[in-house]
Amino acid sequence: MPAKGASVPTETLEQQRRTSGPSRGDSAIEVRGAGKSFARRDDALQVLSGLNLSVERGEVLAVVGPSGCGKSTLLELICGLQEPTAGDIRVGNGSGSLDRLASCALMFQRDLLFPWRSALDNAALPLQMLGASRNRARAGALPLLERFGLAGFADARPYELSGGMRQRVAFVRTLLTGKPVLLLDEPFGSLDTITRAEMQEWLARALGGQSRTVVLVTHDVEEALFLADRVAILSARPGTVRAQLDVPSPRRLPRASSVTSADFVAMRQQALEALS
Amino acid sequence: MSGDRRRAASWLPPAALLVAALIAWETLARLGRIEDYLLPAPTEVARSLVDDRELLFADAWVTAKEVLLGFGIALLAGLAIAVALHLSQALRRSVYPLVVASQAIPVIVLAPILVIWFGFGVGPKLIVIALVCFFPIVVNTLDGLGSVDRAQIDMMSTLGASRRQTLWRLELPRSLPFVFSGAKIAVAVAVIGAVFGELVGSDAGLGHAIQVGTAQLVTARVFAAVTLLSMMAIALFAAVAALERWTVPWSGKEES
Question: Cα separation of B32 and B40, whole Å?
């Protein structure tokens, strides 16, 4: 059933692009004055402070920022794995951590595939969590694995796959949760440059083919501008939104010509200035 | 093929050392004219293994059954206790120290008391074996359950997993290599536990054979019984190790 969402055309995504400004009522994610501090031995580490962000339904938002600025913490707050120490966060219609957990699927920096399961069984895990039998879960996951170029690797163990393949299996696992919000935490952070570029093209196509709200955290400005409808730039710790950039033509393939176009280079310059 | 060669290479040094030791022992026993009841030559032990085979193999079979049953009880009880301790912090705080304390009771003190309580049957032996076996299983399994990557547990929550699903789909499979480590230690000490149990009071088993042989100064038969005991321990250990390779082929193959 979650795979059904994949047939929504890209145009719908484009029409729903927001213009920056105050949030409207139909936003998928609303972060208001969120702060997070972690207690340490004799003081507290303030990771995020007074952070405001709203994400439209169906929008792809990229969050970039210097390392240690709390990007990953922001995703953990949104999906309800952690509670903010200040402000509030709403996802869909729910503000409680369990409501947020029910609406968000999080793809972690590491693929976290289980080595005792095959690629297919790893991808099918969320369907099993929803109560499907192993066979039904496998049948439900197989079409997505095939669509993402892993048809011949369904029975391979994770340690037999390349880094890019493992990330794709992890992505399918995230999609199959069927949740309306996808949170991607540096999904390609551990890959080499060439694989990374390939995976960005691949993700651009994958995101174009579905209608879910996506928040993508990355430290790579180019990746953010290529994949997202809008880029939010965080300050150094304690992280807060410093600037937001609308991307006029997101996910324009092929990537190589896209990222070298004059307007892309100008935007990258703008983003890098905002970052520094 | 290279795997076979590597396996052969790993067997060769200990085998060569063993043969050398046996030759030295044989020479010493023969040239030194040491009395057979003090130090029987390896050939004497081998002769006893052949001549007394019916007696010894019957005893070995009794001991093997005790070891397997006692180990099985310890494995089931150990896994259940480890999971219970893992799931409940209150239990862990209250019971875990007692589990550790149970290992401080010398088996040699406990065994006669068990005989007084339960008689000369198989019961006391199984209790002694299970008691020495369950500790490494509990400790290793509990360590395994506690060592699961926090991010993987978080991921299970984002997939909507219940506590029970996280236990079955993540924590228990992840702990299997630890369970096997505990089980390998446990089978090795299980044999010792069985002999302790039999020494105190029994009419069969290799422990009984050792006791009778010692009393009658048939030292070659005592050595033969000990040889069978070591072979049993090695066979059990190899069986658990083989089961581990078959069950946990992924162990050690992960990149972190």
Answer: 12
Distance between CA atoms of residues B226 and B208, nearest Å: 11
Q: For the segment A195-249, what is each residue's pLDDT rounded down to a tens digit?
A: 888 888 888 888 877 788 999 999 889 899 999 899 999 988 888 888 888 888 7
Residue listed under structure tokens 């869909």: A92
Strand partners, A105: A182
Cβ partners under 8 Å of residue A26, min gap 6: A56, A57
Which structure tokens are listed for A113? 């595939």
B161 touches chain A (CB under 8 A): yes
3-state secondary structure A100-116: HHHHEEEECCCCCCCCC
Helix axes B53-87, B172-200, angle to 10 degrees: 140
What is the per-residue pLDDT across B164-190, written as a single tens digit (0 to 9) for each? 999 999 999 999 999 999 999 999 899
Chain B residues touching A128 at Cβ < 8 A: 169
SS3 B91: helix
Q: Give the number of other CB atoms < 10 A from CB of residue A158.
A: 23
pTM: 0.81
Residues written for chain A = 276
Locate tokens 């990746």: which residue? A223
Name the residue type at position A220: D
Structure tokens at A242: 């410093």
State how far the Cα of A150 lies from the Cα of A163, in Å rounded to an integer. 13
Q: How far is residue B106 from each of residues B128, B187, B248, measured CA to CA in Å?
A: 10, 19, 34
CA–CA separation, A27 and A91 (whole Å)? 8
Spell out the residues 6+ positions from residue A230 whose beta carbon is closer than 8 angstroms to its own: A17, A18, A20, A59, A60, A61, A62, A244, A245, A246, A247
Burial class (CB in 10 A: 0-12, 13-18, 19+), B241: middle
Is the ipTM beyond the 0.85 threshold? no
Number of other residues whose CB lies within 10 A of the CB of residue A38: 11
Element (H, E) at B71: helix B53-87
Residue ranges of chain A whose CB lies within 8 Å of a chain B CB: 76, 79, 81, 101-102, 104-106, 108, 110, 112, 114-116, 125-126, 128-130, 157-159, 173, 177
Nearest to A183 by CA among A64, A36, A61, A69: A61
Question: Of B144, B146, B142, which Cα lies nearest the Cα of B134?
Answer: B142
Q: How far apart are the first and last CA of chain A?
A: 44
- Mention every residue, 6+ apart, whose C-beta is less than 8 A from residue B248: A116, B176, B177, B180
The one-letter code for the residue type at A58 is: G
CB spacing of B159 vs A115 below 8 angstroms: no
Pairing of strands A213-218, A181-185: parallel
Helices and strands (DSSP H and E) totals, chain B:
11, 0
What distance lies between CA A142 and its chain's CA centroid?
Answer: 22
The CA-atom distances, in angstroms, between A67 and each of A1, A112, B58, B155 are: 37, 21, 70, 22
